[in-house]
Design a protein that fits this description.
Number of helices: 4
Number of strands: 6
Helix content: 55-70%
Distance between the termini: 158 Å
Structural class: alpha+beta
Shape: elongated
Strand content: 15-25%
Order of helices and strands: HHHHEEEEEE
Number of domains: 3
Radius of gyration: 49 Å
């Protein structure tokens, strides 16, 4: 009988070994399942934050890029303006020389003496050369006589009653006005017609 007991004991041991290992308890499974969603939620939150930060950075980059383009255009415009109007101060100073030469030519023409013919010719040549230089640098006289008075280009020195000219028309030019490119550098000093009382 002791043999039988020994065999039964061996059989029970083999049966225990053949049994699969015990599966984890359901409580442990539930705990891991609860941890996984919170980790996923946290990752989703981090991804959303990263996307928002990337969008903000991209927007800032676009703004900076646009500002830089505007800055480049502004600097280019300023450089062009500087090139166009760099000679303005010297041209303004030369205009008084032109005025004096024109007065000298007019006075010589009105005197009409033959002795001044050579001097008159020299003055006219000098005046023409200066006008060519001014034209080369895009300096043009402002049209005044016969034009309607325009305070943008004309400076009224006085008004004169006139029946021959329409009201508010320039009838005489006291001093020429000049434009440099599209900028007025000196207004024309003019006499303006007004209707007689």
């Amino acid at each position: 009988m002791s043999k039988k007991k020994t065999e039964q004991a061996r059989n029970s041991e083999t049966r225990d070994e053949d049994l699969p290992e015990s599966e984890p308890e359901p409580e442990a499974e539930t705990g891991e399942a609860q941890e996984a969603p919170t980790e996923v939620d946290q990752l989703k939150k981090e991804v959303a934050e990263a996307r928002a930060e990337a969008a903000e950075t991209y927007d800032r980059l676009l703004r900076l890029s646009a500002e830089f383009e505007n800055y480049k255009k502004r600097m280019q415009r300023q450089a062009e303006d500087h090139r166009k109007y760099a000679n303005e101060s010297i041209i303004k100073d030369l205009l008084s020389v032109v005025d004096n030469l024109e007065r000298a030519v007019n006075a010589s023409q009105q005197s009409g003496s033959g002795a001044d013919a050579c001097m008159l010719e020299g003055l006219e040549m000098t005046l023409n050369e200066i006008r060519k230089v001014l034209k080369k640098y895009h300096v043009e006289p402002v049209e005044a006589v016969g034009e309607p008075f325009d305070p943008t280009y004309h400076e009224a020195v006085m008004q004169q009653p006139s029946e021959d000219h329409p009201d508010n028309t320039v009838i005489q030019e006291m001093q020429k006005g000049y434009m440099l490119h599209d900028r007025l550098i000196r207004p024309a000093m003019v006499v303006v017609a007004k209707a007689p009382a």
